[in-house]
Design brief:
The protein contains 17 helices and 32 strands. By secondary structure, the protein is an alpha+beta fold. The two termini are about 25 Å apart.
């Protein structure tokens, strides 16, 4: 687990702040949330006048939101530039010809926005830009001397989500920073690992500077292998992703990647609990329903998933069947690791049936009935006792499965049967990094992902150049993404209360809200002007609420939009030679601060 440590002043007199008036901006606050809004960010960004929906998964970013997005983007640019990357801008429209080698249009399926131009040519709205950047480099780079390079952009991306939801957290149009690095080697100066480490540090700096509580977790590896991918998660209870952590060592990973410590294995020698008994189980959609019909709890059932193995692996087996407890889920990455292969796929149903698998009713016994099959048994499923399983024929399951009786001698052949870890990790599993410690779960929202692509796109598109020995070699790539609009939404998910948003100062649309109780009063106008000029001169962004509204409305709106500091100019405080000072997170009454001390107090609070 990694959390950020870089600390930089939020504001500085090196840059001037800005001062805007509420009455001259568009901030349409409302007490009502959209009917479909469920997450805090969707509700609050709408109510506070930051966003408005145009269509399903498509939003207007109003002035307050645009300022937040710009501040996040500025931090991203500063840290990317400091890490040696250079900014460019690529088109949102991609010709389909670019997908000929990578076939990524097939991988994306219906999530890819497709359109034809007036001449009937197929195009796509870009979800990311691997093909475009690779084509650009193919026409621009011909020698190893031109590498390494790291290029990035901040741009709108598109994915035709079937069910866009949660406001900005799952959109069809969104703002993203994507970067791509190019190298001739993995190790050493100028290698992929060096760039990857620089991006890891840059991302840590970015999310720290944004004021976020986040965790960097290990994610699924790329084709290079090893620890080749990390996701950056904003920690919050409403997060859609599960994170598993070791509280002792700090290890953290997502569900797909998380390892577990050694779990006890069965001997596979335990006696049967009864005779093999088949039960008719037609038209039942899953383990839970089958279990109810059989009177068996899911944890006493065996779930067996069939995978096909790529012929290029050169293995003696064509099929892999992975068996886990019915209440557990097979982990494809762990299946590959235990089987010692790089590429597998969920078995094509038609081909698997032709081979002899009764898909939906498969049991571990198939290792004996279907040639060229490798059986992988998860440790938790390898114990004795009562088990129910598929009966290897349509519409039937069986009770009293027994490993030794029903699988037999194959259990003693390590080339046909392996026992190990092939399921997703769970809370309470032993930590893989600290003896005696148990994994705990948390929730998070993914806002960044760094990934070692290797030569996936170079091979597919034919991007190879001469190295130092004048040998032509495929260029090695990395890619690094940050959801800019998603970061804004995730920040709200993590920073809100019953009254509205509580922005971290670094990315707040304005740092200070000056509220005039009597906006028509020349004295209040004069003092507001004086204070705002001083604040702006120190790099502090100011919003003046000069609306002709009741005090209660102004205070509610102030809490709703969530600026870090509110200065209220009212008769009582002004009579004492000061203004009322209150931070957004302060639940009590404000304090009267002398006008001469206001700027210094605001600056100290904002820079922390």
């Amino acid at each position: 687990m990694t959390t950020g440590t870089t600390k930089k002043a939020v504001v500085s007199s090196v840059r001037s702040g800005v001062c805007h008036r509420w009455s001259k901006s568009l901030i349409p606050t409302t007490r009502e949330a959209p009917n479909d809004a469920e997450t805090p960010s969707h509700i609050l960004l709408h109510r506070a006048g930051y966003i408005r929906q145009v269509g399903a998964g498509i939003y207007d970013y109003l002035p307050l939101a645009h300022r937040v997005l710009n501040k996040v983007s500025d931090i991203v640019r500063e840290e990317m530039d400091a890490a040696g990357a250079t900014e460019l801008l690529m088109p949102a429209l991609e010709p389909f010809e670019l997908f000929e080698g990578t076939k990524r249009h097939l991988d994306y399926g219906d999530n890819l926005f497709k359109l034809k131009d007036r001449k009937g040519r197929d195009n796509a709205l870009a979800p990311t830009h691997e093909e475009v950047i690779t084509q650009l480099m193919m026409g621009s780079v011909s020698s190893y001397k031109q590498l390494p390079l790291n290029l990035y952009q901040v741009q709108t991306k598109f994915r035709d989500e079937a069910r866009p939801r949660a406001g900005l957290l799952r959109c069809r149009e969104f703002i993203m920073k994507d970067a791509y690095s190019f190298h001739m080697q993995v190790e050493g100066p100028g290698g992929l690992n060096e760039a990857y480490d620089a991006m890891y540090k840059a991302y840590t700096n970015i999310f720290t500077r944004c004021g976020l509580d986040f965790t960097a977790v290990e994610a699924e590896s790329g084709p290079i292998g090893g620890s080749a991918s990390h996701e950056f998660m904003v920690n919050c209870a409403s997060g859609e992703d599960t994170i598993l952590k070791c509280p002792v060592s700090g290890y953290a990973a997502n569900v797909e990647k998380c390892e577990t410590g050694e779990r006890p294995k069965g001997t596979l020698q335990e006696p049967p609990t009864g005779e093999w008994t088949e039960v008719h189980t037609p038209n039942l959609p899953g383990i839970t329903e089958v279990g109810k019909a059989m009177g068996v709890k899911p944890e006493r059932m065996l779930k067996t998933i069939v995978f096909s193995v790529d012929e290029a692996e050169g293995k003696s087996f064509k099929w892999i069947i992975a068996t886990v407890r019915g209440d557990h889920d097979v982990n494809e990455g762990k299946v590959k690791a235990l089987a010692g292969v790089k590429k597998i796929a969920m078995a094509d149903e038609k081909a698997a049936r032709a081979a002899g698998f009764a898909i939906g009713y498969v049991s571990p016994k198939c290792v004996n009935s279907v040639p060229a099959t490798l059986l992988l048994i998860d440790a938790d499923a390898s114990h004795g006792g009562f088990w129910a399983t598929g009966a290897d024929k349509a519409d039937y399951h069986a009770k009293h499965f027994n490993w030794r009786r029903d699988v037999g001698a194959a259990l003693d052949d390590s080339g046909r049967v392996k026992v190990g870890d092939v399921r997703n990790a769970l809370e309470g599993d032993p930590s893989p990094r600290a003896a005696g410690a148990k994994l705990v779960t948390g929730r998070g929202i993914e806002v960044g992902h760094i990934f070692k692509l290797g030569t996936k796109y170079s091979d597919a598109m034919g991007f190879a150049i001469l190295d130092a020995t004048q040998q032509k070699k495929p260029v090695i790539m990395g890619c690094y993404g940050i959801g800019v609009s998603r970061t804004m939404a995730a920040t709200v998910e993590q920073n809100n209360d019953a009254n509205g948003i509580c922005w971290p100062a670094p990315i707040a649309p304005y740092h200070v809200l000056i509220t005039l109780m009597k906006p028509e009063d020349p004295k209040q106008q004069e003092i507001a002007g004086k204070i705002s000029c001083e604040l702006v001169g120190k790099g502090i962004d100011v919003l003046i609420d000069d609306r002709d509204e009741r005090a209660g409305v102004k205070f509610k709106d102030a809490d709703l939009i969530g600026l870090p500091i509110r200065l209220t100019l009212g008769d009582k405080a002004l009579e004492q030679g000061g203004v009322e000072y209150k931070t957004r997170r302060d639940t009590g009454k404000g304090e009267v601060v002398p006008i001469a001390d206001v700027t210094a107090k605001c600056l100290a609070a904002i820079n922390g």
